[in-house]
Amino acid sequence: MEDHQTLESFLSEESLKRCIQALTEAAEEISSLLRKGAGLLGLSSVNTFGDQQLQIDVLADQVIEKALQKSGVVESICSEERSKERPCGGTGFAVAYDPLDGSSIIDTNFAVGTIFGILKGGSFIGHRGREWTAAGCFVYGPRTELTLAVADEEYAHQFICIPQDSKDATVLGRWKRNRVFKTIESGKLFAPGNLRSTVDNSGYQKLVNYWMSNKYQLRYTGGMVPDVNQLLIKGKGVFCNPASISSPAKLRLLFECIPLAFLIEKAGGRSSNGNISLLDIPVNETEERCQVCYGAKEEVERFDAMVGQMF
Ligand code: AHG
Ligand code: MN
Ligand code: MN
Ligand code: MN
Fold this sequence. Notes:
CATH superfamily of the largest domain: Fructose-1,6-Bisphosphatase, subunit A, domain 1
Helix content: 25-40%
CATH topology of the largest domain: Fructose-1,6-Bisphosphatase, Chain A, domain 1
Oligomer: single chain
CATH class of the largest domain: Alpha Beta
Structural class: alpha+beta
Largest sheet: 8 strands, mixed
Bound molecules: 2,5-anhydro-1,6-di-O-phosphono-D-glucitol, manganese (II) ion
Number of strands: 15
């Protein structure tokens, strides 16, 4: 357990504080909607990525948009559900987000999340993750948690939402720091996404064989937020989601891959697309998808050597 510093006192810069406060308010609402069974309400439509949207995907998207509009410090937004950048009524930041990561595991009652990235200015286009101001994810599990990394602060930080009966003015005061993530070491824990791509990605098949013959422990839910977040919490291991011709990359560079890379690298881990750090890839369009690997230095180097960028 850490020092229980509040999120409010952790954040010093006023406009970033307003932006993150808006996100925590939205996350508290999304978490309460999920607890009421909102995710079980059925289908809505199809988004620009071709994903079947649940009503809760659309609802969470709107909850976050509304909160960011109210903050007055957000110039533009875009999300997995509405991927074109558009004005958000304020000035200061561009915010990109995946409102609900893990739609397909809502019915199984696994942990799901919200992923976000924040950049000073009006657009993400042409910018690399290394230039971002902050990024993080909310986890909706038995607890509601925020894992946050800020460019001007060392390390990644976990805050836990401790709801209080009265809704007082200091919303961020409800979020208490529980852990600081400083290092991800090599360790025998693997979370292998898109395993179906081993059929025509022989490098990935070799890597899976390596993990199995070295008796790695499998820990994979199919939700990127809990699956990547566990590397921080356990302080070891590897997560990947490689691609092949028959099973192309699924994860979205702007809405999923770069924000979690920002967290992992702040926590002393590495990220890669099989060749370079995900923080060194400029965003050319908001709809790009990407192959990813996160984890300890040696684990990511092994991924680059064995899987690389074949596709
Ligand atoms: P989303 O629910 O935001 O559309 O994305 C889910 C992602 C990610 O959470 C997970 O790692 C990946 O999809 C799993 O994909 P498959 O179920 O296709 O393996
Ligand atoms: Mn989706
Ligand atoms: Mn997602
Ligand atoms: Mn989503």
